[in-house]
Amino acid sequence: MTEELHIKASGELNLETGQALFEDVKKRLIGGGGALVLDLQDVRKIDSLGGTWILRIKHYAVSLGARFECRGATGLVSEYLRMIAPGIEYMDRVPPRNPGFFETIGDTYYKVKQEYKEARNLIIDVLYWTFIAPFGKKGLRWQSVMDELHEMGVRAIGIVVLINYLLGFIVSMLAAAQVRNWGAGIYVADMVAIGFARELAPIMTAVIVSARSGAAIAAEMATMEVQEEIDALRGMGFNVSYFLIAPKVVAMVLAMPCLVMIAMAAGVWGGLHVAIFILGLDAGMWIRESILALQIGDMVQGLLKSLVFAIIIVLVGCHNGMRVTGGARGVGLVTTRSVVMDIFFIVTSDVIFATLFYYTF
Questions:
Q1: Would the N or C end of the chain have less CB density within 10 A of its end CB?
Q2: CA–CA separation, 266 vs 269, rounded Å?
Q3: Cα–Cα distance, 169 to 186 (Å, whole number)
Q4: Whole-model pTM?
Q5: Start and end residues for every CATH 3.30.750.24 domain found in the chain
Q6: Which numeric CATH code is attached to 4-90?
Q7: Cβ distance 291 to 348 under 8 Å?
């Protein structure tokens, strides 16, 4: 079809007449360009089902490459067509083009760049209000620090002890299975003590705390952001980093080394039970061997890692929480993202520590 095809409707346009009109269009409209003009001058009444058939006729015409137009409508029919005009006009819109490969790369680059700037500004602000400003006239909110310390530290002791005890038990079982044929079961104590002091206790405790307290921090900050409480604090003249984040950082920095030391003891305790009930060793001999195997440098490595992990957990949680968009679903998404980022940065920083300590200790 290369010219206009006029189809005239009359009387009442409803379910039956609309369907008949559609069948007439299907018979007469061939396609190949041109236009379909629907003349509604003689239509005196139209209902919602008749309007639906008009939309379907337009969809069919557009699918064949024809232009669609309604003419001659008057009175209530004209008013009704104006009401459904957005649905008719929507079909004329060109669907958005999918971004190309280089567009996707560019968009990702600018998003990462923007997030990096936000994270950098947050880190600088938080470190100032946590480690520099308290030495001036502006002290810390110690009551908030104590509340956070109880939540992040005291209430996490149980799960930290349980997980590290079980991990110590597992590691000791695996090691004992390899050395029992040579009668060297006592040296499992050395491996467990050094392994937990240097590596297992810090990173396992950090993962537990990130899944527990890190997720809670992200959810708390995200909820406050969604409910505009953070904007309200800024409007009242409060610095968010000082008022909300600095107490969390101080509490986490105080809690993590303590939790890591407890985790070290729990891991050795798990290994001790393997020594007593499976290897048949004396408890005093196992503890003495563990103490002799440990050196100050081993403890220092674990405690230094715990301090860095503590700062990572709080900053990542606050950063993601303050970037939330949407409602409850957005809170859930940034909480999940926070835990994933925590674990990634914890493992990455642990790789850096392992490389550094390999050449220094």
A1: C
A2: 5
A3: 15
A4: 0.73
A5: 4-90
A6: 3.30.750.24
A7: no
